[in-house]
Design brief:
It contains 13 helices and 14 strands. The chain starts with a strand and ends in a 12-residue tail after the last helix.
Length: 360
């Protein structure tokens, strides 16, 4: 996968399994896309710091465990300078706690999160690379996708040519978005928005750095014509509140494996909806996190789409295939307890990297 800040040559995943004293289990996934060695690092962090917080305790609700982890990790984040990885292991553990919690209750995770009914959740094909993107887009259209997101930030000429080729191939009815992965300055982003507007794009994602102040995003929204999307790289409810409060921030995109798990992301979704914004779960990993994101969106309701990576990834397909029944651009979840999927560890063994139980 090609992005404006680098190329992913591997597709790592960190899976977490929690078992309670009765033998019930739940599965979670930790964000670990960059760098590749970060997967092992996060797995060791989960064993060394996450496990002692949650094991040997009785939890009445997943949110209790999530809040306990954030409290325990607060000073550690400062001491280590690693707030990202520690937030990520807390998110993955929280995800597994929700799966376990819902399985024990005998209900799907979307219902445990407060959802009333399953519905047809729109999804979009993401991560479409800047090399002959129309070919992958057409292949995903044949699979049933109706919305497509192109990677941009590779130079004005190449970006525009790719958009033209995709629009010509897909036709005027296809929904198209772009993701710059923080490629531009504010001035460059304004120019890009005007340059890309003729292609009738649904949103422009992360055109500037994620840590740009809210005022920058507000100015950007007023100076160019495209909707703005972002949020995958925020790490607190306070940051999300600032983002949501900006009139020009239309699409809010927390990543359940990167920050918040389900406990934090359902809060962001509800705050976004209350402000009239769209909640669109970000996800670019393996199958557990993708299914969890679908449960979040099913529970949250409202306008928005769920991201599905368009590139080949057996770690995603082998875990999520049983629920990814795409019909006219949408996926409807069922009533199976928890996330409704269990990884086939025997089939996945060919990809496994095993750590000793000490995590050292």
């Amino acid at each position: 996968m090609q992005t404006s800040f680098g190329i992913m040559h591997d597709r790592p995943a960190v899976l977490l399994r929690l078992r309670d004293k009765d033998g019930a289990e739940g599965w979670g996934e930790v964000w670990c896309n960059f760098p590749t060695v970060g997967a092992e690092h996060r797995a060791r962090l989960a064993l060394a710091y996450g496990r002692p917080v949650i094991m040997g305790q009785t939890w009445n609700h997943p949110r209790q465990a999530w809040e306990a982890m954030l409290d325990r990790f607060a000073v550690l984040m400062l001491q280590t300078g690693e707030p990202g990885p520690l937030h990520q292991i807390a998110a993955g553990i929280d995800m597994a706690m929700w799966d376990l919690f819902a399985r024990r209750a005998g209900v799907p995770a979307w219902r445990a999160l407060g959802g009333e009914t399953a519905w047809d959740v729109p999804v979009y094909a993401s991560g479409i690379n800047p090399t002959e993107p129309e070919k992958l887009a057409l292949a995903k259209r044949d699979e049933g996708y109706r919305a497509f997101k192109l990677k941009v930030g590779f130079g004005a000429e190449r970006d525009v040519a790719n958009l033209r080729n995709m629009r010509d191939a897909l036709g005027d009815d296809a929904v198209m978005m772009v993701d710059a992965n923080q490629a531009w300055t504010a001035t460059e982003a304004v120019a890009a928005g005007h340059r890309m507007a003729p292609f009738n794009l649904f949103w422009m994602e992360e055109p500037v750095r994620a840590d740009a102040p809210p005022q920058t995003w507000a100015a950007l929204a007023g100076e160019q014509p495209l909707r703005l999307a972002g949020g995958e790289n925020l790490i607190s409810l306070a940051q999300y509140d600032d983002f949501i409060a900006q009139p020009g921030m239309s699409i809010i995109q927390p990543d359940a494996g990167k920050w918040g798990g389900l406990s934090g992301c359902i809060d962001v979704a509800r705050r976004a909806h209350a402000a009239g914004k769209w909640y669109c779960p970000h996800w670019l990993g393996a199958g557990i996190g993708l299914v969890a994101s679908l449960h979040l969106k099913t529970a949250a309701g409202g306008e928005g789409l769920v991201e599905v990576d368009a590139n080949p990834n057996p770690l995603r397909d082998m875990m999520a295939a049983s629920v990814m029944h795409l019909q006219d651009g949408c996926v409807r979840l069922g009533d199976a307890p928890g996330f409704g999927v269990l990884p086939d560890l025997a089939a996945l063994d060919q990809f496994a990297v095993t750590l000793d139980q000490s995590g050292l």
